[in-house]
Amino acid sequence: MLLFWCVAGVLAAVAAGLILLRSAGASREAGALDPAPALYRRQLSEIDDLAERGLMGEAERSAAHAEAGRRLLAATDAPVQSWGADPGARRVALLAAAAAPALALALYLSLGSPGTADQPYAERLARWQGADLNTLTAPEIAAVLRQAVAKRPGEAEGFRLLGLAENAANNPIAAVRALRSAAALAPERPEVWLMLGQAEVAAAGGKVNAGAQAAFERRLALAPGDPTARFFLAGAKADAGRTGEAIADLTALASDLPDGEPRQQVRAQIARLEGKPTLGVDPQQLAMIEGMVSGLAARLAANPDDAEGWVRLVRAYAVMGDTGKRDAAYASARARYAKAPKVLEQLDEAARADVNR
Fold first, then answer.
1. pTM score, two decimals?
2. Hey, which of 127, 211, 215, 286 would disulfide with 197, CB 3.0 to 4.6 Å?
3. Domain definitions of the chain by residue range
4. CB 247 within 8 A of CB 270
């Protein structure tokens, strides 16, 4: 690594020197004739050539000829503007170009780890493949499983395990890709469709998108009455503005569940949709929701041109009862989409999800 930095520094200095030498050569030729008149004369000949080949009409030829002629006369009459460079400035530039890599090398030696051996990915992967899985991190397990499914692309279980690993490694898009492959290979396994639906929701930032809906519907077809699929499909109806249908589905789901935490969560969701205060919400679930909302707010801060995202953010703050953040997001979104009536209507509906508004 140290040898690399030395060679890189020398090459950078040589390149800077070559640039400065060429600049000095151009400076010495500053007294040469102005190339502009020759350029316009060539342009005149090219105009005539185009006209003779029938690619330009007589009127266009006359106009172009006159314009090029005017520019030629102006360039001929104008005084030659020579330029030069201060030799002292060139020396300063050369010194700075040579000092930059030297400074970078010094910083690397003081702050970096020049004695650390190279760690090629292939060698690390081989080491992970021979290690106990309990000693590996989630990204390392996912890397091992990627190699495994590449060798056995026809095994659904490998893709299912890869989806679990990618999800644990906080890579929901890769998890969706792996679980889609598992579902294609084993369409009769209901647990794969459930995992795929949940991964689709995570990849969409908490929204039950079309892919998630299809996965949960398939899960219900294979496992009728599944409460998780019913819960997410009701959320999809709520996101689509079909609040009454969502409440009806959740009410039926709550009646089918035994007393316990899942039933309380369903009732809490019904209360949110009805605009009522919610009590007894699971703290872990609330923390997860708040984390997802914070992530959405951060994405909008970096890329604010997302009308659907603003609507979701306003609705999330409203449902959580955070009126301050709701009003701030609502005002920002209305100002940004002041000329989009449909978006404004959606923002108004999302803000009204809070009964206190």
1. 0.49
2. 215
3. 2-74+87-111, 122-279, 285-351
4. yes
List C-alpha distances in Å: 85 to 35, 91, 275.
20, 11, 74
Which homologous superfamily is 122-279 in?
A: Tetratricopeptide repeat domain (1.25.40.10)
Tens digits of residue pLDDT in 29-58: 555 556 677 787 888 888 888 888 777 778
Rounded Cα distance, 277 and 279, in Å = 7
SS3 content of the chain, % helix, strand, coil (to 5): 75, 0, 25
Residue-wise pLDDT for 234-258, tens only, equals 999 998 889 999 999 999 998 988 8
- Please tell me the predicted confidence (pLDDT) of residue 78: 63
Closest CA to 127 of 136, 117, 138: 136
Of 186, 181, 172, 119, the closest CA to residue 142 belongs to: 172
Question: What single-letter DSSP state applies at residue 56?
Answer: S
